[in-house]
Structures are given as structure tokens and as C-alpha cells.
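Subject: design request, 260 residues
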């Protein structure tokens, strides 16, 4: 904020500064500082510092440092460092490093490294290497060898009877009790059986099971369903037989004997 001319605010600030400058509080602070400056406590601190500065231990350290500074060993080290600094070998190394730094070969290497760093094949290579490392680190187990199972079962019993093939079928259909199912089966007499059966389910679907059975494969069934499920399914009941008709019984009139 700038003041143009002599504003009342600036005049008030100048008057406040002048009053503080000549105030008794500032004079007391200056007197206290002057008393501390010339106080015995400060003088004692200065004397202690002077004694520490001139004590024998510090003087011995200073003399030892001065002796080492002017010792022949330090001078030899400084001369050797100076000779190496100005030696032709160091200059040649610096020149070779400078030439390599500005050489085309280094630039090409940097460009190739940058292109290799940003190419997609590098990421694929990293992923492939990580996968191979994980596979190699995993424990190796011998591959199990499986041999195809060929059953060599043969019935051990010996029947004295000749093979007897058979064929049967039956069915039940009763709408009143909601029973509707059938079954048919055939056999060649040598242990091979083939058949199927159907069942009407409570939801209106028909379950059909077709099966085969023999001494080697056992029982093998194929189950299929037909129709749509209906949970309120009730087959219409229509009796196929006529209602029984009963005739009223005919009684002869009783006969009574003579009256006495």
C-alpha cells in the first residue's frame, strides 16, 4: 500500500513510532541491555571463553595441526597429487573419455538402447523370461505313464443250460389313479440286455429311459424327458366301462294259513 502526500494514517503511524522511540519502556530496555553488557556475568563468560581459547590442550592440538600441515609427509602427498593431476597419463585418460563421450558410437549405442527400451518385443521378452523362470522354479515331477485299461474279465461260472434269449413288454394306464407307464426288454441269452421304460411324471412330462447291460460295461442308461412341465396337470378321467345297473328285487307276497 502506498501513500500519496501526507495522509492522516501515515502521520498517525509516524507519531506512534516517535512516541515509542522516546517512551520510558524503550529507555528501560536500552538501560537493561547496557547493564547486561557491562555486567560481571558477561565478563565472566568472556573470561571463561578466553581461558578455553588459551588452554594448553587446545594449544597442543593447534601445534599438532600446524606440524602436520608443514610435515614432509603432507608435502609429499601434495606433490604426488599435483604430479598425477598434471601427468600425461591422466591427460590421455581425460582426452579418451572426452572423445568417447562425443563419439558417434556412443550416440548410436544410446539411440539403440532407447529404441530397445521402448519396443513392444522387450515387454514380450520380459513376460516370456518371467514365465520360463516361474516354470523352471516350479518343482519337476516325473510324467505319469498311463496304460489303456483293457478288462480281461471272463465269467468264471459254467452253465449247463443253453442260452435262452427272451423278450417281454408290459404297460399300465389308469387315468383315475394317474398311473401311466410301460416297460420292454430283450436279451440275446449271452448276457447282453437292451430295453427301455416310460413313466408319466406328476408335472405332465414323460420320462424315457433307454438302457443296455452286459458283463463288461455294466449298466448304461440314457434318460430323456419330453413335454412341458405343468404343475396343475390333472389328466381327464373318463371311465371306459359303463356304470353298473341294478334291478329292484322282486319279492313274492307272503301266504298265511287259515285262522282259527
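Subject: RE: design request

Done. Sequence follows.
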Amino acid at each position: 500500500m502506498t501513500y500519496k502526500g501526507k495522509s492522516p494514517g501515515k502521520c498517525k503511524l509516524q507519531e506512534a513510532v516517535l512516541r515509542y522511540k522516546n517512551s520510558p519502556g524503550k529507555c528501560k530496555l536500552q538501560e537493561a541491555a547496557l547493564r547486561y553488557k557491562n555486567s560481571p556475568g558477561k565478563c565472566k563468560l568472556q573470561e571463561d571463553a578466553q581461558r578455553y581459547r588459551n588452554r594448553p590442550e587446545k594449544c597442543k592440538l593447534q601445534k599438532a595441526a600446524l606440524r602436520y600441515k608443514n610435515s614432509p609427509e603432507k608435502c609429499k602427498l601434495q606433490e604426488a597429487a599435483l604430479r598425477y593431476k598434471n601427468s600425461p597419463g591422466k591427460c590421455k585418460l581425460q582426452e579418451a573419455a572426452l572423445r568417447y563421450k562425443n563419439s558417434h558410437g556412443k550416440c548410436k549405442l544410446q539411440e539403440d538402447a532407447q529404441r530397445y527400451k521402448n519396443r513392444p518385443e522387450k515387454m514380450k521378452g520380459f513376460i516370456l523370461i518371467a514365465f520360463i523362470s516361474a516354470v523352471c522354479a516350479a518343482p519337476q515331477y516325473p510324467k505319469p505313464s498311463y496304460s489303456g485299461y483293457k478288462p480281461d474279465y471272463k465269467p468264471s461260472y459254467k452253465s449247463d443250460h443253453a442260452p435262452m434269449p427272451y423278450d417281454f413288454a408290459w404297460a399300465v394306464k389308469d387315468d383315475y389313479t394317474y398311473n401311466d407307464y410301460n416297460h420292454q426288454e430283450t436279451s440275446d441269452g449271452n448276457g447282453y440286455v437292451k430295453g427301455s421304460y416310460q413313466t408319466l411324471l406328476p408335472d405332465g412330462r414323460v420320462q424315457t429311459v433307454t438302457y443296455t447291460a452286459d458283463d463288461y460295461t455294466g449298466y448304461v442308461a440314457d434318460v430323456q424327458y419330453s413335454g412341458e412341465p405343468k404343475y396343475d396337470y390333472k389328466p381327464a378321467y373318463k371311465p371306459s366301462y359303463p356304470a353298473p345297473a341294478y334291478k329292484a328285487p322282486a319279492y313274492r307276497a307272503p301266504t298265511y294259513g287259515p285262522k282259527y
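Strands lie at 166-174, 179-187, 193-200, 206-214, 218-226.
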